[in-house]
Amino acid sequence: MNFREFLQQHIVYLDGGMGTLLQQQGLTPGEQPERWNITHPEVITAIQRRYYDAGSHVVCTNTFGANRLKFSEAELEQIVKAAIENAAKARATSSGQQEKFIALDIGPSGKLLKPLGDLDFEAAVELFAHTVRLGVRYGIDLIVIETMNDAYETKAALLAAKENSDLPVLVTNAYGEDGKLMTGADPAAMVALLEGMGADALGANCSLGPKQLIPVAEELLRLASVPVILKPNAGLPRSENGKTVFDVTAEEFAGEMASLIAKGVRVAGGCCGTTPAYIQALTANTKETIPVPVTDKGLTVVSSYTHAVSFGDAPILIGERINPTGKKRFKQALLEQDMDYLLSEGVNQQEKGVHILDVNVGLPDIDEVTMLTNSVCELQAIIDLPLQIDTADVTAMEAALRHYNGKAMINSVNGKQASMEAVFPLVKKYGGVVVALTLDEEGIPSTADGRVKIAQRILKTAAAYGIPKKDIIFDTLAMTVSADPAAANTTLEALRRIKYELGCHTSLGVSNVSFGLPNRDAVNGTFFALALANGLSAAIMNPYSADMMKTYYTYCALTGLDENCAAYIRTADRYIAAPQAPAPVTGGSAVEDTLSALQQAIIKGLKDKAADLTRALLATLPPLDIVNGDIIPALNTVGIGFENKTVYLPQLLMSAEAAKSAFACIKNHIAGSGEPSAHRGVFILATVHGDIHDIGKNIVKLLLENYGFQVIDLGKDVPPEKVVEAVQQHHAPLAGLSALMTTTVPAMEETIRLLKQQTPWCKVVVGGAVLTQDYADKIGADHYAKDAMEAVRYAETIMRNFAEKT
Amino acid sequence: MSPVITITLPPPPFCEREALRYAGCGTAEEETRQAILACYTAIQDELIYKVCYRELPVKITGQVCDFDTFSVTSQNLADTLAGCNAILLMAATVGVGLDRYIARFGRISPSRALLFQAIGTERIEALCDAFCQQYSQQNQVGLRPRFSPGYGDLPLETQRQIFALLDCPRQLGLCLNDSLLMSPSKSVTAIVGITAQSVTEHHKCKRCQNTACPFRSNV
């Protein structure tokens, strides 16, 4: 029988522990158990035969760590081949009468993926793909991906399995005592991710005993629409007379497992510390149990690498601000590749309370594939909200979805055949909830009826691709009410019918409705309320709009979605229009009279105050006067204080951030007026290859920007060639490199060597924990900066000389 | 051989002064003090306090420290372990949550990133101290100062053996990068000599040869 069919109808028994049994047979600590497939095949086969004899339907090959990081290509092939032969021999010789399958076992790589670690996502996919291809070549029935403690790595492994085989894939994660994976994902996030990508069953293994895994198992059973797997440890290990013993006996184990199987667990086995005796007890204990049917939970869910966002209860707010349309400052940031600006838009919206961030970086002069992928990765490095990938470029959409850590929202598909043919295969492959616009080749129907018909057609086509209706959210298109008085009503009617007749969730880009009208926020807020009353599930909206946020909180309070009106009360005074207090532009104590209010704000490190004062000053003064008269003198005061050791690093940085917020106001002002922004020179900055600690680099960047340099920040773990390329592209007079550890200094040396050879005009300044003057001289740096201020001073000298020469 | 044991400790008390020292503050102004406390409050629930360890025998011959399954050549380590018959091989981490905060604020507010970084250093040191204290009390043994790869003449490459023996990725979610840096970054691996006599107080900076270290505390 094929495993997929078997899984539908039966309780499936997996095997138990392997590593702990091998240790009893003499595997030494630190030795690779996978080599035993070749050196001790009879030991492996004997253990596996005992599992089949005990009633396991599935036995995993002894290939937990069989990957190219640990073994050469030739040895890996031998190992996988031998491992499968060993399992096949066990199957052939077992006395067990049950159906017997062989699973290729895939454990974690042992590396953490970027951005937390140094393993690239695509490299991880290829790593797992290699093992999968070998498994397929030598004959297996299914693939088991197990003990994964990171969502992103799990995705890489599942993608590798899917791209290189059609075999069933079971996926289990290692949840800790807090009910989460090591890198933060909860069961809901993992269900969303794994179901979205088409895992045949999912669940938990390792780390804890069956009792401690009950909450995780129950959560998985509540959410998953595929069979749930449970493969716990035999409790916790302890040392007894130098031997490892586990604290849960086979009988206790089987008892706990039986009650979980009665609750709905469909695939059961054991992990560390369990033996054939445990599996024997388990199968004996549950022989008569009738499998609980697996039901479709019908949940519409997107996820990030930590948590899931579910549609249906309270309305979901999707922040629209990461989008260049109609925003000069944002366009400028995209063209200058100013990622910090984009990230700050993300952080600010998160602080305003949105649940999902829309990400749109489409501009005519931009490489959208690269930009969108980078934006998604950079956002996910610092923000844990799910993202909505918003693009009309299908190549960019695929690249972004592939690298996205979680189950993304996708914006958008529509009723045009070409659109569905392009987008649906991506939704199917990578998972996702896709926004479907109710328009087609004929345009946007003017009637609600027309829009509902398109929705029905979209659902039908999606089903043909294997995409369930829960993964589609309809946008019935808010049109401008000033152009067509019936526009809002048509949108709302279509919305209501799709929600209640088709049973689908809905989303709207609310603000289109008010186009061309004064005080648009007021119109948007009311329209949002009407849409919510008509069943709107989510809105793509501006979280900085008080009217929109007021509508959201009052709606939740009025419809019983906000218990005790707690969220409303907590946020109520935020949205009362307070009379704008005029910022005091002059004044201060007698002692500080010589300093302007802005200078004082910067010196004290008061970010918001510095910004308010700058905005007030811009009404009357030219930007350059503020920079030269207030900001630079204040920065100098603090900088000199730091050099004289009267000001410590945290204070220096707080002042620098206050100055930066003042500069941001000036930049905004200039972007509005069309004046070009000037700078003192380009500085290329990077943390060298292999090094992923970039705090020092970020500090240098902050100070350099305040001193008027244009900093091209290449990020961390930057290969030498990329630094050279950036120096060439900008003809930069200066590059700064940082390194934390002795092991990454060779990469720094190599970068300097390449720079000297290919961009001889460029000076190189280095810094970082491990560096000293001697070290810097030895690797050929032009200058060693012991701290960030010194890097600034050096940059000032170099730029001056450079400007004189050119 | 003893198994690898993984435990979670209760959060050790937070030492604000120590964190400020790691942030580069000799004396801190009230604003900085408030800022670091606010950062600690924000990160508190994201921190984990996990340690995994196993005991190994040790034989010292000259510069060679032989731990049965692996051996290293290091005069400094041999000095530190002199007279010991066994060691504690340990790894500890406060988790990825802190790295995410450092990354987040590194992009939007380096001053706070610096404070989070300092808090992380204080936390991991406090965790290691708490663990060693607990171990020595429970087992009625004394412990020598922790000695980590990269200290003195102990090669950083020793990390590879320690990771293999402790199975750090599986036990702690702690991974070793190609450059031998660890992820999560606020983590420690160490070799600790076990002695018969009860706890002996060794100040951690006293034995270190890096006298130019800006963080060296004077005792």
Structural overview:
The complex is a heterodimer of chains A (806) and B (219). Chain A is of the alpha/beta class. Chain A folds into four domains: 3-286, TIM Barrel; 300-575, Dihydropteroate synthase-like (TIM Barrel, Alpha-Beta Barrel), CATH 3.20.20.20; 597-673, Methionine synthase domain (Methyltransferase, Methionine Synthase (B12-binding Domains), Chain A, domain 1), CATH 1.10.1240.10; 682-805, 3-Layer(aba) Sandwich (Rossmann fold). Chain A has 30 helices and 25 strands. In chain A, the strands form five sheets. Chain A has an eight-stranded parallel beta sheet. An eight-stranded parallel barrel of chain A has the order 13-14-15-16-17-18-19-20, surrounded by six helices. A five-stranded parallel beta sheet of chain A has the order 22-21-23-24-25, with helices on both faces. In chain A, helix 7 (151-164) runs parallel beside helix 8, helix 13 crosses helix 14 and helix 22 (597-604) runs antiparallel to helix 23. With 219 residues, chain B is of the alpha+beta class. Chain B has a single domain (5-195), classed as NADH Oxidase (3-Layer(aba) Sandwich). Chain B has helices at 16-22, 30-43, 75-81, 96-108, 110-139, 158-166, 168-172, and strands at 5-8, 50-57, 59-61, 64-66, 71-73, 86-93, 142-143, 175-176, 182-183, 187-195. Chain B has a five-stranded antiparallel beta sheet with strand order 1-2-6-10-7, sandwiched between helices. In chain B, 51% of the residues are buried.
